């Protein structure tokens, strides 16, 4: 029994640390990528302190209001299982390797699918696919309207620069809060649903440490997906992207407590925006943007495929 408990604890701790690293290195760039891109002239530790303060405030609020739960109820349908097996640690380990190659894999699919039932997995996939479609349609429509009033290639006037900078930091805080209320489930799934204060402080230390590494290395390989898109380095464009992304996530957050892939929403948003810009703003053929959209979509589909294969192997192992 001692050996079983020891191995279970080892897989739990390993899974938690790997999931925390993966979420910070992979998923959080969705939220903080445009923030880093448009604030590249600032010291990395200033951005890190800002993100860490919002993270601590977000998780603390859920912890106080929900009786020790830091996921805003996202794991209500996935009960805590104290018996951890090898596959619970393998899922985030695969994600770490895929992150190193710059593939925007859904952490939700890879991690949550290991713990959830088939019914929950189907609901997660359906909600995520719907999120991709909604984000793409909203982005395409919104940037079609914006193209009539705003050229994102024009520089912000000097007298408005500070206003846009303040707006961007506020929208980033709103987006970071909304995103954390979704994706924290991918890390906390390895932990008891009601955290003690020492365990909460440990979570703060791990996540803030991971954020420090991410900001120091300017987002790593995943950041390239953000930088490849038109105008993401500009504070005005970054502010609009962050606000739209946050509003979409907030809608899905209030819809139900089923976890979803924020990666799919983010990629759908960028793809819809890029297609609209090439269609209406640049007045160029949309053929140029299709390879970019297809490449990003192929990457998220690849991540989904890996997740489903992993779930199949796990189910076969259990039986």
Rg, nearest Å: 19 Å
How many helical stretches? 12
Structural class, from helix and strand content?
mainly alpha
> What's the helical proportion of residues?
over 70%
Strand content: under 5%
Shape: globular
For the record, the count of structural domains works out to 1
Overall pLDDT metric: 80
> What oligomeric state is this?
single chain
Report low-confidence residues grouped into runs of 5 or more: none
Distance between the termini: 22 Å
Run of helices and strands: HHHHHHHHHHHH
Largest sheet: none
Would you count the extended β strands for me?
0
What does this 3D model show about the protein?
The protein has 319 residues and is an all-alpha fold. The chain has one domain (2-318). The chain is built from 12 helices and no strands. It has helices at residues 2-38, 44-65, 86-100, 107-115, 118-146, 158-183, 185-188, 197-216, 223-227, 235-255, 262-281, 290-318. Helix 4 packs parallel to helix 12 and helix 5 runs antiparallel to helix 10 (235-255). The model has no long low-confidence stretch (mean pLDDT 80).
Topology at a glance:
Layout (H helix, E strand, L loop, with lengths): L1 H37 L5 H22 L20 H15 L6 H9 L2 H29 L11 H26 L1 H4 L8 H20 L6 H5 L7 H21 L6 H20 L8 H29 L1
Helix pairs in contact: 1-3, 1-6, 1-8, 1-10, 2-6, 2-8, 3-4, 4-5, 4-12, 5-10, 5-11, 6-10, 10-11, 11-12
């Amino acid at each position: 029994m001692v050996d079983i408990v020891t191995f279970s604890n080892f897989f739990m701790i390993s899974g938690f640390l790997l999931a925390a690293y993966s979420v910070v290195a992979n998923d959080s760039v969705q939220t903080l990528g445009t923030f880093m891109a448009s604030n590249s002239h600032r010291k990395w530790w200033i951005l890190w302190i800002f993100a860490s303060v919002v993270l601590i405030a977000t998780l603390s609020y859920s912890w106080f209001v929900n009786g020790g739960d830091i996921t805003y109820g996202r794991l209500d349908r996935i009960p805590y299982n104290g018996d951890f097996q090898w596959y619970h640690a393998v899922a985030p380990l695969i994600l770490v390797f895929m992150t190193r190659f710059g593939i925007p894999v859904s952490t939700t699919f890879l991690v949550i699918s290991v713990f959830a039932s088939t019914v929950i997995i189907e609901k997660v996939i359906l909600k995520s696919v719907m999120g991709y479609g909604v984000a793409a349609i909203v982005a395409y429509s919104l940037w079609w309207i914006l193209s009539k009033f705003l050229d994102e290639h024009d520089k912000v006037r000097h007298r408005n620069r500070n206003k846009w900078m303040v707006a961007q930091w506020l929208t980033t805080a709103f987006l970071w809060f909304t995103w954390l209320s979704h994706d924290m489930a991918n890390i906390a799934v390895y932990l008891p649903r009601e955290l003690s204060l020492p365990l909460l402080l440990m979570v703060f230390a791990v996540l803030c440490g991971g954020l420090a590494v991410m900001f120091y290395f300017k987002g790593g390989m995943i950041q390239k997906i953000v930088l490849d898109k038109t105008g993401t380095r500009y504070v005005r464009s970054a502010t609009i992207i962050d606000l739209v992304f946050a509003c979409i996530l907030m809608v899905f957050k209030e819809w139900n407590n089923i976890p979803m892939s924020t990666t799919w929403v983010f990629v759908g948003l960028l793809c819809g925006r890029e297609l609209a810009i090439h269609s209406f703003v640049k007045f160029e053929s949309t053929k140029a943007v299709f390879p970019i959209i297809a490449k990003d979509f192929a990457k998220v589909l690849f991540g989904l495929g890996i997740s489903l294969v992993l779930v199949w192997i796990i189910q076969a192992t259990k039986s």
